Structure formats: C-alpha cells, structure tokens
Amino acid sequence: xxxxxxxxxRHRDSEAPLVEDISFSIRAxxxxxxxxxxxxxxxxxxxxxxxxxxxxxxxxxxxVWLAGHGTxxxxxxxxxxxxxxxxxxxxxxxxxxxMTSLNPVLTVGDQIDEVLRLHRPQMTPxxxxxxxxxxxxxxxxxxxxxxxxxxxxxxxxxxRQRVMIAMALVAEPDLxxxxxxxxxxxxxxxxxxxxxxxxxxxxxxxxxxxxxxxxGVVASVADRVAVMHKGRxxxxxxxxPLLRDPQDAYTRKLIGALPENLPALPSVPxxxxxxxxxxxDLQVHFPVLKGLMRRQVDVVRAVDGVSFQxxxxxxxAVVGESGCGKTTLGRAILRLIEPTGGEIRYRDQPLTGMPxxxxxxxxxxxxxxFQDPAxxxxxxxxxxxxxxxPMAVHGIGEDQEDRIERARATLDQVALPPDTLWRYPHEFxxxxRQRxxxxxxxxxxxxxxxxxxVTSALDVxxxxxxxxxxxxxxxxxxxxxxxxxxxxxxxxxxxxRMLVMHDGRMxxxxxxxxVLANPRADYTRHLLDAVPRVSRYVQ
Amino acid sequence: MTESVQQVEGRRxxxxxxxxVGEVLLRWGARLGIGWIALLxxxxxxxxxxxxxxxxxxxxADGWSMPFLRxxxxxxxxxxxxxxxxxxxxxxxxxxxxxxxxxxxxxxxxGAVAWQTVSAPSLVIYEQYREAEAQGEYQTVIRAPIPYSPxxxxxxxxxxGLEAPRESPDRVHWFGTDDNGADALSRxxxxxxxxxxxxxxxTGIALGIGVILGGLMGYFSGIVDIIGMRLVEIFEAxxxxxLLLTFVAFFGRSLYLMMLIIGLTSWSGYARYVRAEFLxxxxxDFVQGAIASGLxxxxxxxxxxxxxxxxxxxxxxxxxxxxxxxxxxxxxxLGLGLVDEPSWGQMLNQAVQSSTFNWWMxxxxxxxxxxxxxxxxxxxxxLRDAVDPHSRSAAKAASHAAPARPAASGATxxxxx
Lengths: 539, 417
Prior knowledge:
The complex is a heterodimer. Helices cover 37% and strands 25% of the residues of chain A. Chain A is built from 20 helices and 20 strands. The two termini of chain A are 31 Å apart. Chain A is an alpha/beta fold. In chain A, strands 6-7-8-3-9-10 form a 6-stranded mixed β-sheet, sandwiched between helices. Chain A has a 6-stranded mixed β-sheet with strand order 16-17-18-13-19-20, with helices on both faces. A 4-stranded antiparallel β-sheet of chain A has the order 2-1-4-5, covered by helices on one side. Helices cover 68% and strands 2% of the residues of chain B. Chain B has 19 helices and 3 strands. Chain B has helices at 2-9, 16-26, 28-45, 47-50, 67-70, 74-91, 96-117, 127-134, 184-220, 222-236, 240-251, 255-265, 267-282, 285-292, 297-333, 344-353, 359-387, 389-399, 407-411, and strands spanning 57-60, 63-65, 140-142. Chain B has a 3-stranded antiparallel β-sheet with strand order 2-1-3, with no helix packed on it. In chain B, helix 9 (184-220) packs antiparallel against helix 10 (222-236) and helix 15 packs antiparallel against helix 17. Chain B is globular, with a radius of gyration of 26 Å. Chains A and B meet through helix 1, helix 12, strand 16, helix 13 and helix 14 of A and helix 1, helix 14 and helix 15 of B.
C-alpha cells in the first residue's frame, strides 16, 4: 500500500539530516506503528509523506510509493495540484491536538462537508449531507444530526478527535496517518479512540500509520512496529515478538525504561513514624458569577471533601483524569489556591487560616515541582540564583558562598554537573530542567514535596531517570511525596498508597497494590481497564 | 572556594538581557538608530563646546583664559560631569548594575551641588570677543568649531537677517542663519538637548507610573485591577495636546511642565501592557514556585515577574520617546513652546512664518526631527524582533547566510506548516 524507500529529510538550518535513509512498507489493512521518543523524527516522516513540510526544509529525497485503486504513484515527485488531490482523498491525517486542529469559526458538519466538496465534486449536496451523517455515525459521535451543527468549542476533547477522524475518513482514504492521536486525551477516552480506529480499519480495509511514543498503545493495537531513534529506523518487525524480544539495544533500553519494567525501589527505613500532613474534608469551590451584578449563581466543586493523611517517607499518588481536581488539590495544600472549606494540618499546625507571615516561614517544609519544565523555571535567572534565593530568604547557609556550595551539593544529588549553576534554564533539556526543578525544591530541605505530573511531559527513558532520582532522594532524605499523575504505570511502580479522584471527589484511597488488584469503586475499575499495558498484551 | 567559583565563571552563559542586546545589534537598522542617538547625545552634552561665541581658549596680555567656562550653566556642568563619570565607571571593574546605580547617585549629587553653586551671568555680550579680536587684543585664540552661540544675533555686523548656507565667505554658516541672524546649526545643536531630554524624561515618568500601577493591577487583580483599569481609561480619554495647550495658557511656557504633562498622560499604555503581562505571568509555574518557596512580594514582583514582562514595555517605550519628541516639536511649531530657548519645532515655525521660503530653515530642523524619530522607531522595531522568538531565528539565518544560499530562504524558515 505505502512503501517508503530511503527517505531522507534535512532542515536548512541543521547540518545533519533529521531523518536518514528510512525504509518501510505498510500493507493494505495493516496498522503500522512508528514509535520513538520526542525528536526522533517520526512526525516529520509523516509530514514528509504528506508533503506538508514547509520551505525551511530541503526537498525530501528518496521514494514514497502509494498504491491502491489499481495505480501506483510516487508522491515526492508529484506536481502540487495532483498532490492536493492525494491528500484527504487517498491519504487522511489526524493530528495530536484536537483543540487546535479544527477551525473554530465553522461548524463541524461544514468542515467535513468541505473535504467532500473538494474530493467528490460529483456528489450532490443531499448525498454529501448523507455521507457526513454516515461518517459521524461511524466515528460514534453521539447524536450526529444535531452535533454536526455545533461549533468545535462545544465538543469535548474526545469528541473533537472523533470529528477529526471523521474528517480524515469521509473521503474513504486508503491510508490514515494518525500522529499521536490520543496523547492529549484522557486514558479512558484514549481507549475508546484506539478501539474506534481499529474498528474502522477493519471495516474499511484501510491501512493505518500510527505515530506514538507510548508502547502501551502500540502493544494494544499495532500489527507491525518500527522503532525510530535520532532519525534512523533501528528496528522493525511484527509487534508482539518485537516487544517481547527486542533485538536492538535502543529498543531494549526503551522497553526497559517502562515503569512496569524498572527495578523495584528500595524501601525507606523509618518511614511511617510520623504524620506530616493531615487533610480533612478539604473543599475548593470556585464561584460561578453571572450577570451585571456578578451574582453567584453556582459553584464549581473543584475539590470536594478530600481527606487523607501523609506520613514521612511515604509516596501518596493522586490519580485521576484531567479536570478531576488533582492539581487543584495539590495547590490548595500549598495554599497557592485558598481552600474554601476543610482543614489542613502540618505537624499539628493548622495551615488553613494561617496568616501570611508564619505561612511564608512554613513554606520551606512543603515544596512543589511542576509538570511543565519549560514554564516552571524563571527564564531570566541563572540556576545559581534560582537555587540560592529561596535559601537566602529562609536563612539557610551562612553566606552566599556557603549557599552556592549547598546548591552544588544538591545539583549533585539530582545528577547534574556543578557548572549547571552558571547556566540559564533554556540551555537544558526537559529532563534536566525537571531535575533543576527538583533541586530547587530540595535546597530548602523540605519534608513534603508535591510532584504535579512531574514526568508526564518527559520521554519514557527520561521519566525513568527522574523517577529513580526521586526514589533515591526519598530514601536519603526521608521525603514524603504527594505524586499527582494520570499514569497508572508510574503509580504502580512508585507509590505506596493511592488516592483516586473523579469530579473533585475522592473515589478511593488505599495501598497501591490492593487498589490495583482489587478496586472497590466502579470508577477505579473503569480507569484501570482503560490503561494500555505492554504486559497485558505481551507475555 | 573563590578560585573554583572563578574557574567555572568562564563557562558562565550569557544572560537574557545580553542575548537581547546581541540580537538587537545584529540588525543594521538598530545599529544606525543607536548610532544616531549616541551621536545626538554626545552633541547635546558637548553643545557649549561645539557651538559657542565664547572662545574656548585665549591668550591676552594678562595671560591665558577660558572665557566659555564663565558662561556655563548648572545644566552644562552637570552634563559634563555625568559624561566624565560615565567614562570612569565604564572602565571600573565590578557588576554593571551596581556601577550604574553608583553612577546615577553621584550624578544626582553633582547636579544638586551644581545647581546650588554655578550661576551663569544673565547678561552676555557676544560682540566683545569679536571686537577684542579686531583690536588685536588676543595673541592666540581657539574658537569652538561653530563659533556662534544660539542667541548670538550678530548685531555687530548690521546685516541682520537671513543668510543661506555658506553665503558669505568670511563668516561661514554651514546651515545658514535664521530671521534674526542667529546661526541655524548652533541653534540646532543646542536644541538637541530639548529633544532628547523631553523624550527620555517624559517617557521615564510614564514608564515609572505605568510599570508600578500595571504591575499591581496584574498581580493583585480583582478590585485593585477594576479601579486601576478605570483610572487608565480616564487618562486615556485626556487629549494630551489640548491639555498641554491649556497648561501653557495658564502657567506659561516651561519645559519641565511639558515633560511632566506628557509623562502623566501617556503612562496608560504601559500600564495596560504590564498588567496583561503580569496577569499571564501570575499563572506561570515559576511564579507559583516562587510563592511556594516563601519569597517576599517585592522579590516576586520585581525579580521574577518584571524581567519576564519587560520586553513589550521596552518596545512601547522606544516608540513613546519618539512620540514625546513629536509632541514637543508640535507645540513649538504652533508657537507655544519655549520662547528664548531654541528648539527644532520652533525653528520650523520660523521657516513658515518668514515672508519668503528659505529651504535651509525647514530642511535641517525638519530633517533632524525626522531622523531622531526614525532612529527611535528603528530601535523599537529591532527590540520587538529581538524579544519575539519567531522573528529571532529569521534574523539569525539572514545574518549569517552562506553566500551560496540567498538570505530570503533563511528568513522564511520556521517550524512545520
């Protein structure tokens, strides 16, 4: 169906090619997965096949043959007019971000209709309308007769991704290129979308090129897999045999870095002797104001009645899908957001209602590491200032030299070289920045660190490094961690206890192993079922 | 310890401010603009030495003397002092920021002392030097490059009035003379002080008010924001030019009043920018992290938020300087500026008022206004490009484009479509 031969892509600004000599072929009706970490060149490969790379790139070399309908075309050499016909008609594409890939000023029905008008000019308006409805039904959008008149902002992320798939499928292409189609979605919705793509593939007999970084996703749907690393294909083959017994060293390393395959963490001596945090019936309600007088008409219950205790040396995972209130919970504990009800005690001192001054002194014991390493460090200050300023405020260290020495020691603990001190955040990779973020939390010698999705922006091998560093620090410093995440693999690997949240409410709390093996709440069971795991598919 | 600090100091990377300055200097437009402003600043500071009827150095029977020194005003002395101090502090070692603050403090002290002690004689007889020279009293005389003061109307020559550039061979006026017979170039040199100072000081006042109010509005939001925004709207509704006209009518003509009014009415734009930036930054994780580390409010506002939000404000400020210069020129052109101090706008006004059209009276001051406003706009433009990451890569690609490939292809590069 699709055959790529010696494809080579080079950006005009870079010396080395971004994609070098990759060759693979996709058979009709097959789901072919292209896996790799960020920057491995997998998305660029897809864009090059569609000829969507802009003028910054040199023309790709190699051959891309697309077969079907009794013809065989070489895409890279086609004139632009013909290529435009190929896009959408023969090859459909869906992107990662459903929030921005739909035009906000057109209804979803119109956007799907436009594709048909372009590629099926012979169809009458009535036929097109029927086809739009049919395809919306195919992607299982609820209530398609009304939904097609909606604008994109009225749809949820999962529904938008369904509309995107409908747009890609409406002209019945032979090949669907899906570039990280589920990365921005919650795990339960991801499971539905993957199932949908799989069903449609079987029904229409089309081939799918799935681009992803997630081995769980690969294991659950792919027939064949190719692994990319730094612009090269390091390995390709049948999915399950490859995952079970990877031949290439890099593939082995990637699969070994999955949380389920990481070596077990050491236990913390002296853990659980002391209750550090005691949260009782915590509530964070945001008022919904309406009208000229800003009358309060309703409240959004972002966090509604959450209670737990945190002991020293313990890792408590807070799990839930986006919008469940887990981040709000973390920030409310730190009083970055004011809780509206309930009580938080830190070592018998009530944090709720504490005046600003004493609270500022107490903040050194409760630290936070954020999700996005790009925005969590002040880009205008160098690392030395970032690390020593909080120490100076809290009177740690005798003088600046002493503080720099401490900062250096802390950087060493997160496995960063000492010259990191004089550099600025933008010079580091995501994983390094995340480690600087951890170092910033550590310099104050806290008891509790709240980790808000610290690994979800990182590649799996980098995630493994960060988790190991956190695990080691936890033993060395007897830290208690509140680990906010949506990734069940990380939860299972890293946490002692877990708290499941849904719509601001606490669904379940208990020992991680027990909850995973024997979930009590229906929601937890639903959530766990949706998680794609390599181990579930590959023995 | 210190040794190891110094050792790694060599690997220190460039701060954001330095990178932006480097980016700005990559652009030829900005280099031209900065060059022109620097030249103008130097000329403005050295005006009494560059254009003066008082000889710089004379030798008479009584010995050597420097007549121009006696006629220096407090402002002249302060500016000279600041220039010398700037040179000294430029060469001194130490942190740039600290040296700058020290320079500012010393300059302020110098200014205060000068204002108390220095007073130039109010009666000036320019003709005395020419008479003395004609009578052969001077053995040696060193004159300023332009040997005419801005208010030296050359009464001793009797032929008062207009003279085109380089009309008479024995008294060279490079840019001609005005209606009263004063040297136009000398007047322009002295007028550059007004143009520069009104731009800097009016914009400085506006920036100060705008950054503080905007910052508070953005950080605290809520009720502070609501009140602040109403204040901004009130000030935006005031027409600056008409307010200036009214104040000139009531309180007379004063440069300082003009600076104050332009400053007080133009801060609202900066406040809006700062507010918007702070509202955005407030949600950023690193600000939340700073709060979570227990840092104090001034540190969060001015160390962590302001440097991240300053870029659009600086861009707006460089355009603001240009518009302040234009406002003063407009007022002077309308005949409502200063009476006896020369200013570019007032010279343009003279050109229009005189009965015949004298091109040199319009072209030179008009050209100076144009060039200065243009220079500030070029700098603003370059700053805006430098702080905008999208256009940054484009300039880089264009600047070191290999000869084999055209610069245009680099300029269009970017991510994927």
